[in-house]
Amino acid sequence: MTDASPALLLLLSLGLCCPGAQGQRITVTAKFYNSKTTHPQSGKSLELECVSSVDSGVSWIRQDKAGTLHFIVYISTLPKTTFKGNQMTSSRFEVSKIGKSYRLKVKSFEAQDEGTYFCTVNYNQALYFSSGLHAFFPVTTTAAPVTTVSPTTQGSQVTKRDVCLQSHEAETSKEKELNFFCEIFIWVPLAAACLLLLIALVITIVLCQKTRRRRCRCKRPANGNPKMKPKVPSQQI
């Protein structure tokens, strides 16, 4: 743990090694002294308040964005203050005590003061932590810059109508290609079927003619004249 004083190490060791008081409920709460405060403002003061159910002294600790704990000050019940490095005063912080309220004031809040603040109470050989109080600058979102296209010459400008015409021509050419392929798929099989029917019809006609010739062919004598029946002589009385 970097940037930690012996007082912070002592407090943590007491909290980890020693059991809490049995049968007694201790509450420790950290909050902004001004209830309207939600975020610190750069260069302005920020006052925090720690309220404990027992009057046994309070320590203020800050946890930075990296998770490192930094000891700020210990305020006793007298009150007597001990800052980092066993100093009695600090150029950056002010403390005060009214009853069971222990206040910490950051004189000029800067980026190095951002973090989560805790106050701890060491009572009856036990260390009690408050919930973390987040003190960060509000996140500012910047809008993306809007880029505008500067007007150029009329000949180089592409109007909306030109774009529509180009897209329409492209769609028309695609439709023509699709129609062409559709016609091929329809007419080629149809033409082939017609050709097969024509061939079958020709074959049928040829076969019919051959069969008819065979049936109608007559037998002729060798001299080429048909046989004549012999005449029966008539009897005269």
Automatic annotation (TrEMBL):
Q: Where in the cell is it found?
A: Cell membrane
**Residue ranges of domain Ig-like in the record:** 6-130
**Coiled-coil segments on the chain, per record:** none
* PANTHER family membership: CD8 ALPHA CHAIN, T-CELL SURFACE GLYCOPROTEIN CD8 ALPHA CHAIN
* Keywords for the protein's UniProt record, in alphabetical order: Adaptive immunity, Cell membrane, Disulfide bond, Glycoprotein, Immunity, Immunoglobulin domain, Lipoprotein, Membrane, Palmitate, Signal, Transmembrane, Transmembrane helix
Q: Name one GO biological process term.
A: T cell mediated immunity
> What does the record say about its membrane topology?
Single-pass type I membrane protein
Name of this chain's protein? T-cell surface glycoprotein CD8 alpha chain
**Transmembrane parts of this sequence:** 184-207
